[in-house]
Design brief:
Number of strands: 6
Oligomer: single chain
Distance between the termini: 94 Å
Number of helices: 12
Length: about 250
């Protein structure tokens, strides 16, 4: 990939942050803040003349400014960095390159051997990022364990759903049985009369409460049936009434 062409702007934007490649090529002389360099320092690093740097800045200023390239007045420069002996006395403005701007400049220079080395490192980084990392035995084992745990979780959820569905079906069937009369479902008074039990209203009220509790604990819903005196009353299977009457003496 040719990073110097205009069409490679997206790649340059991505790779400009990899400023560590500058130090892999050669020692970079910076200003006292260890973050910026002047045009002269940049030219020395890339082993080109100052005018070549200025030409590339002129042609690609928008890109470089997006990385932090800026021009400051001499007074601002001396406030930030002090007075440098190698700075021209006639200079009223000083260009400052941060590491990111210098990294981008390396992607724009065609004729600098140093810039070519920087680009080579950047392309290696991009290639490594694009190449999937081989999985270790641990990664493969971890993936198998994760897959097994996921399968177990799905099986557990399916089992719980089946149990819930079965319980719902049983409840529905019980209601149908009561309606269709396939099982012995009774109202409290009817069961008491059938078995010669206490039919007083107070006693039946206690037994009815107990029957409701037993039925709920067993997942059984009462079925309303008509009664000539009370209108609608709860009916339960005979075994529920048997337990309820036995517990309420």
């Amino acid at each position: 990939m040719d990073l110097t062409i205009p069409a490679a702007r997206t790649q340059r934007d991505t790779l400009a942050a990899r400023t560590e490649v500058l130090d892999k090529v050669k020692v970079l002389s910076l200003l006292p803040d260890d973050m910026h360099a002047t045009t002269e320092q940049v030219a020395t690093f890339f082993e080109v003349d100052v005018e070549a740097i200025r030409w590339h800045v002129k042609m690609n200023r928008e890109e470089l400014e997006s990385d932090g390239y800026r021009i400051v007045t001499r007074s601002i420069f001396e406030t930030e960095f002090g007075s440098l002996s190698n700075l021209s006395p006639q200079a009223r403005q000083i260009a400052l390159f941060n590491r990111r701007a210098m990294t981008r400049l390396a992607m724009l220079f065609r004729d600098s051997p140093v810039a070519r080395q920087v680009r080579s490192h950047l392309l290696d980084i991009e290639e490594r990022a694009a190449t999937p990392k081989p999985k270790s035995e641990f990664d493969i084992l971890r993936g198998m364990i994760d897959q097994l745990e996921e399968s177990r979780r799905e099986a557990s959820e399916a089992k719980a759903l089946a149990i819930k569905s079965e319980a719902q079906s049983a409840k529905t069937e019980a209601r149908l049985d009561a309606i269709e009369g396939r099982h012995d479902w009774f109202a409290g008074l009817g069961y008491a009369r059938l078995h010669d039990l206490n039919t007083s209203a107070a006693h039946l009220r206690k037994v009815g409460l107990k029957a409701t509790t037993i039925a709920k604990q067993s997942g059984i819903e009462a079925v309303k049936v008509s009664h000539q005196i009370y209108g609608k009353v709860n009916s339960y299977p005979a075994w529920v009434w048997e337990l309820a009457f036995a517990e309420v003496s």
